[in-house]
Write a structure and sequence with these properties.
heterodimer; A: about 110 residues; mainly beta; seven-stranded mixed beta sheet; about 0% helix; B: about 120 residues; four-stranded antiparallel beta sheet; about 50% strand; globular
Chain lengths: ~110, ~120
Amino acid sequence: EIVLTQSPATLSLSPGERATLSCRASQSVSYYLAWYQQKPGQAPRLLIYDASNRATGIPARFSGSGSGTDFTLTISRLEPEDFAVYSCQQRSNWPLTFGGGTKVEIK
Amino acid sequence: EVQLVESGGGLVKPGGSLRLSCAASGFTFSGYSMNWVRQAPGKGLEWVSSISSTGSYIYYADSVKGRFTISRDSAKKSLYLQMNSLRAEDTAVYYCVLGSNLDYWGQGTLVTVSS
């Protein structure tokens, strides 16, 4: 099973600041890595698939990069609605696995 | 507009059974793989099971293998999860999810396993 480790666990930032979230895989997942956003009481929403492709309707301030074992989600300028939990997920190998999540909170 | 509406959750005793359903609309159901993903209260996301567009390929997490069965009915545009021998650790919100990229998620249905 591929283990995904996300860091930091919590990121405290102010609106307008840049957020950089990390996801590291225990073995290569090539580019088969996705990022999801989840707000309290809501279902997750796909942001980025295949490491760097924005999903439909996702603002350009969200970007993804990386390949192999190291991936990054960047939010260029945080908007108030961006404060949420972000999870990465790999679909390179079965079982599909998720990272533990990074909470982006208001500083 | 893609819509995925789960139903069938509820309170069940350990060892009991439940059948979850997911009604799909807004896309060509028969053309996409489908998935179940769960989230225990206050915890992260856990993949449960996936089924290919034709139903030919099925995968399960080790934690549910032998107890849960995923299926689909293209005529009814519906996805199912039969859950048997339920345990306390199966307590979670269960999400129906579209596609190999987990593109769209339903709002979830809560399953509580407790005596």
